[in-house]
Amino acid sequence: MLAVDGGTPVRTTPFPKRALFGEQERNAAVALFDQAVETGDAIGYNGPEETAYEQEFSEWHGGGMADLVNSGTSALYVALGGLELAPAGEVVVPPITDPGGVMPVALHNLVPVPADASPGTFNAGAAQIADVLTPHTRAIVVAHIAGEPADMRPILDLAKEKNLPVVEDCAQAHGARYHGQLVGTMGDVAAYSTMSGKHHATGPQGGVVFTTDEDLGWRCRRFSDRGKPFGLQGRSNVRAGLNLNGSDLAATVGRVQLRKLDSIIAGRRRVAAQIASGLVSCEGLQIGHEPEGAESVYWFLRVHFDDPRFSCDKSEFTAALAAEGIPVTASYRHLPAEAEWFRERKVFPPSDYPWGLPEYGGDRGATFECAHAVAAVESHFTLPIHEQWTQDDGDDVVSALVKVADAFRI
Ligand SMILES: Cc1ncc(COP(=O)(O)O)c(C=O)c1O
Questions:
Q1: Cα separation of 198 and 122, whole Å?
Q2: Where are the domains of the chain?
Q3: CATH classification code of 23-256
Q4: Taking CB atoms and a 6 Å cutoff, what residues make up the pocket around ligand 1?
Q5: CA atoms lying within 13 Å on the CB side of residue 236
Q6: Which residue of 133, 160, 164, 337 could cross-link 368, Cys pair, CB 3.0 to 4.6 Å?
Q7: pTM score over 0.90
Q8: What gap in Å lies between CA 385 and CA 402, rounded to an integer?
């Protein structure tokens, strides 16, 4: 009997916590404080720890330039700032993403234009991006949501053909690969979030801007620190910008975390593979479709719910799953176009800029259907898997999924 009907739940003990920060992170932070106490020098930024973290982050990606900043939102803001896109244009944004993956576009006085998702996925596809390009488009932001790489080859071909820069939002996808290539190394510049929920973290909040284009790397670096003339000789502040710096304290934590990243990724892949194989013969449920060549890192796991196969709807199904003791999110519904700030154009109130900028020659309504994206969020639920889950944890999830599916299957 299902637990929701009074039966015994599959799982009665809590799932393991992630325990992301441990002794090593604490020791690294304490060592910095010890040094500060001993020498009288405050812990700063752009010092040896931050420089080392940025170098190690770049090396982990096979070389490039990294700039540690204070959040993933800032990282995207800086990446766009480094590209020096003329305002009053448009930037294509993901159909499903965190607000921090879209607001920076609008804050640059550029109109965010969501492209729909590739059918059956949470990520934009080339065809959907092509549909929203106009003569006003200045760049394309592609997010790898849930740690699943977007289908980049056709997107990169399109961007090249249209001569548009590509910004990869890797906030949820540290270390994911596409046809063998790491995400973050395919576009012109990449933005990472390293807040404490992500694959690897630089503390409670953080972000990294990464690029293999050195000139762009310097422009980003200047823009993230009030236009300081980094990489230039004898000049004053060269551009207006905010202070979005990371710090040596964040970096020292990040350095320890970076050393754990490979095993974090391997752990998530192990759990995802276990659940995927456990669902192979469970009709009506399957792991979300990934593009060919994808090696995902599963920030969460998408499970496709084939509604016509069941006598209940998805919310009833996930409620039954939760009653079995399984952590589940019924819907990852984060469509920028559905948010109040977007619909009501509240970026620079009381104006409706960037949409209302006199120089903006485009014509964008406030509604974007994104029918595939809506269909995708409505037909998937998500499991908050992580690398600390054991074989037994995975087994319990599979048992509960199969139990609930068997009970509701028509
Ligand atoms: C895809 C995506 N982009 C951007 C962000 C913003 O990052 P942060 O929360 O570090 O500002 C997030 C945060 O989760 C995200 O998931």
A1: 18
A2: 3-19+259-331+375-408, 23-256
A3: 3.40.640.10
A4: 71-73, 97-98, 100-101, 143, 169, 171-172, 193, 195, 207
A5: 1
A6: 337
A7: yes
A8: 17
DSSP assignment, residue 146? G
Return the structure tokens found at 76.
């995207």
Going by C-alpha positions, the residue among 207, 233, 204 that lies closest to residue 220 is 207
Question: Domain 3-19+259-331+375-408's class?
Answer: alpha beta
Question: Which amino acid belongs to residue 39?
Answer: T
Tokens of 174: 């540290």
Q: What is the pLDDT of residues 139-172, one digit of tens each?
A: 999 999 999 999 999 999 999 999 999 999 999 9
Distance CA(195)–CA(205), nearest Å, equals 4
| Distance (Å) from CA 144 to ligand 1 centroid | 11
3-19+259-331+375-408 and 23-256 share one CATH topology? Answer: no
Give, using CA atoms, the residue closest to atom 7 of ligand 1. 72
Q: In what order do the strands lie in the sheet with 166-169?
A: 65-69, 207-211, 189-193, 166-169, 137-143, 90-93, 111-114
Which residue from 77, 107, 172, 209 has its CB within 8 A of the most atoms of ligand 1, so it is best to mutate?
Answer: 172
Mean of pLDDT values over 353-368: 84
Q: How far is the CA of 202 from the centre of ligand 1 (A)?
A: 14
72 Cα–ligand 1 center, Å: 5
